[in-house]
Every structure is written in C-alpha cells, then in structure tokens.
Amino acid sequence: MKQIYYTSCLAGRSLSGNGGYQIRALSADLAPDQARTFVPVLAFELPWNDSDFLAEQSAGKSNPIRFAFLDDPDRGPFAVHCVDAGLDPATGRTGNFFAHLVCDLSPEISLEQIVGLWKDPFWKTADGDFDKHLDSPESLPKGSFFTEERFASFLQKEKNAAFFLFVMNAWIRREEEACIYLAAPSETIAFVLWGMLRFLHPVFHGDLTFSTYEINPSRTSAKIVGLWLPENGSGALPQYCKTEPSLYYNFITGSGSDLPVSEYLRYILDKCRKSRFADIVRFHEWIDREGSADLARLDLLAKILNGPERLNRSELQEILADSAFKPLLLKKLENANIASALKRFPEIDAILNPMPIPKPLPPVIAENPFEGIPAEEVPQSKFQSLVSSVQPPGFSGNPFQNAEEISFEEERINEMKFVPPPSSGKKSPDTESEDEEEDENTVRGFLRRALGGLSWWSGQWWFQMLFWSFAFTLLGIALWYFIPHLREIYKALSSLR
User: Fold this and answer.
1) Pairing between β-strand 180-183 and β-strand 224-227 as defined by DSSP bridges
2) Which long-range contacts (CB under 8 A, 24 or more apart) does 54-61 make?
3) What is the tens place of the pLDDT at every residue in 449-463?
4) FRET label pair with 101: which of 130, 199, 324, 445, CA 20 to 30 Å apart?
C-alpha cells in the first residue's frame, strides 16, 4: 500500500520543489510519474462564493469532508480523504485543502474497514514537519469512530432513519450504471455507508464506490455521491441528479426518488434501531444455510419474522410450499393475534381447525365369539343343537367355520328358523314335543347320529373314492368266485324244478 500527500506548498517544500498545489510527499516506492496520475482525483473545493455557505461558516457549522473510495481500471482501488486546510500559505486566501490518498490497496481490506476510517487519526489533515518520502504501510488501521451503539443512537432520529432506509433501498434497486445523489452532511452520509456495509448482506456490497462530497457531482466516477445544500432548504439539486436512471435524496427536505421499500430493509432498520444486531447476524446465517440470498427470499423471511399478518395470498402459498419457510410460519401461528389475522386465508384456517378424522368402523368379527369358553357354558339355540346332533362321532369342530357368509353372532343365529323335513311313520314318544331334547341313550338316537355322521362323511371326496374302491374290489372278488361255478349252480337250480 502506498500514500500521497497533496496540498498548497511554499516553494521548496513540495516533492518537486515548486510552490502552489503540489505533491507534498509520497511513498518511497511509488514513482512520481505514477503519483501524478492521481492528481485529478485529489482536487477539493468548497462553495466559498455561496452566501448561504458563508453564513453557515460564520455560524460555526462544520465544513464538508471529501472522503471517497474509487476503483479505477487504470489506477486500481484507492481511498482519498480531503479536508479544508484554512488559509493558503502562498496567497493568504481561503480555499486551501489537504488531501491524503492511499492506493494499491490489498484485496483483504474491506469496504467497511475503509469507511470505518472516517475522521481517523490515520489521515493527515494539514501540512507539517515530515519528510517528502513516506513509508508504505502494510495495512490500514481499524477505525474507532463508528460503533454499533453509536449507530443505533444515530438512527433514533426519524430523519436519519428515513435517510438510511432510502440509501439502502436505492442501492439494491438501482440500475447497474445509475448513480445515487445525496444532498446531506458528509458525516451523515458516512454514517449510512458504514451501516450499509455493516448490516446489509455481503451479496449487495458489489461494486460500491462512494464520495461523501463533490463540488461537481457529475465529474466523479463514484456510484454514491454526496453534495452540499444549505440547511435553510433554499438550494436544489441539479436536474441531472433527478433524471432517470439516477436516484436522489434531499436530506434537508426529506424528498427523493419514489421507490418501493423492501421488507428486508425494514427488518434491518428495525433491528438496528433496537440495537438487536445479533438478530441480523442470525437472519443472514439462516438465509445462507437454507438457500440463496436473493432479495425476494430475504423479503419473504423478513415478513415472516417482522409482520406475518401482512402476508398476501401469493406470499402465503409460496411459504407453505417451501420446506424451510413453512416451519417458521407455523411457529408464528402460536401467537393468537397473528393466527387471528391470518385465518382469513383458507389454508391457515385448515391448519388451525383441521377437520376431525372419522373413526374407522369395527371390522366384521370372523372368529367364533365363544372361543375359549367351555362348551357347556355356551348358550345353545335350536339351530346350534341340530348342528351338534348331526356331527359324526369324534368330531368337535364346526363344519361351517370356513364359510364366509355365515356369522356366528348370537343374535343373528337366534333369528334363523329351522323347518324340519317331512317324515313318514309314527313319531317316537321321545319326540312328541319340539322343545323336548332327544334321549341320547336310545337306539333311535344312536341311529340318527350314525346316519347323520354317514351323510357328512359321504360328502367328502376322499371318502367317496375310498368307498367306490372298496365296492369294486368286493365285486371283483365275487365275480372271481362265482363265474367258474356257474354251470354247477345252473344244474343245481334246474334240479330243483
């Protein structure tokens, strides 16, 4: 990093030895020819011929300070600090200034660090007893003028807060080649520049260049340009400052370009005014972790955190469709006031008042409801008694237990009516009454159970095969035995006639 001092010099005190505005000193490793290319950007002039400015001078108002950071394709990035230096030593007239420039800045030096050097002792502000050849500092010091507490105090004035909000908004919304012109005190501009670089997401820092004061704003390459106007409000910005795509703001009158205000910037302003700077850090950490830091997502997150009741329908649908944003909104709905305000949307009403899920109907009982109960304790209907009576000996299961259409619900079984088939012959004395149970010890009862069992066995395919195999075997044995003796049998029968 190299330095240049520039001011009005007496003959013999400048680097060249000439009098007037000359390079007073420079870094030993900076060539004089290269240093002279910076002279055009070292000029500084106050509006001495303006009566309002002179009136403010006499009233003890501070003079503007030209503090600028520029990035020139030929000269690279550099910072310059210019202040009024009182009377010109050569002429004795007002208008002298002292300029201190640093160039060949390291990429590790941030814009915030540069702005933080506002009014820092690092800057030389007057000629003195120093050598014409300067050291080349390795880095810039860390400024101490701006602090978070001092910035929060600065924003307590509504006028300053509105100015800070406008400058941030204008910077992130401006067109690429547009300039922002600010009619405001130099220190006020320095405050908002420091706040921007401190609290805006780094994605918006971009190619920011600035100058806190220019006598002729059209001659600088800075993107943010400050200029002086009298505090009595009688001054006006040049027309080119108000011509699109340029943006402007008059701090004296509070008027400026009309721009939609970003919710994200409202969030930044609110947290700064409340000195809740850690919230801003967490905000940026969350957005970096969950997605890209584009303005639309930043606005949406800020609205969820700082004013969810102001969400519109499209924003709400976007939030509910986003896996990162949705949990944040659901957390906010725990607040009764926010929930009440958002119930106007059907999507939120459905979340807050979900429809009850109907209970499923009980399944059809497919098992025997009397399973595990001793047989003697199971109530017997007439139909069940009949089924039991026709089971084969030794069979203890229910022959209908695999039939899907039969239910063993007691009340349905009791509704079934059994009509016995017509029978011939006399009734047994044991069956004279329908309700009288058959005597288990009688021959009739035994035969009925046997025939009932035989009818059941005859319905089984394997029993039929066994039966017919046995029958054909007997038929074969009979034929084998009787055919050889048919002649003898015939003679025997004939003799009987």
Assistant:
1) parallel
2) 56/230, 56/231, 61/231
3) 665 666 666 667 777
4) 199
